[in-house]
């Protein structure tokens, strides 16, 4: 029996919440690490560039946490108001934005740490490779698969 539109939105929202749980855990761990870093021994040895990268990483992690947790708050405000389609669309956009923030935070954290322990050019190279790897896994491969799935509308 085919699902109704309401059932599909309920399923889509449940699927999205499961995905957000994974992303939220990752960003919360990174955010906690970044929050404690300035209080660590050796942080006083960072240079101006590294401090700037740290601030970018910290703010991007905060942005990721905010946008990845926002669908939960959004749901609380709209709970039982019959606005599930709007909630699913908005939560999708927020989750996508949260992943962008998370990408920036993670690449910035890699740049910060590698610049602290390696030559700057190697830090930039490794951070660029990290960004490319994330973009490949999070964007390019799914987009390539999305084209395949569009050919078969019954596939889920």
Explain what the structure shows:
The chain has 156 residues and is mainly alpha-helical. The chain has one domain. It contains four helices and no strands.
Question: Brief description of this entry?
Answer:
This protein has 156 residues and is mainly alpha-helical.
Care to count the β-strands? 0
Question: Mind summarizing the main beta sheet?
Answer: none
| Order of secondary-structure elements | HHHH
Number of helices: 4
How much helical structure, as a percent, in the residues? over 70%
Portion in beta strands: under 5%
What Rg do the Cα atoms give? 19 Å
Write the layout of secondary structure elements.
Blueprint: H1 5-36, H2 48-78, H3 84-117, H4 120-150
Helix pairs in contact: 1-2, 1-3, 2-3, 3-4
Highlighted features:
82% helix; single chain; mainly alpha
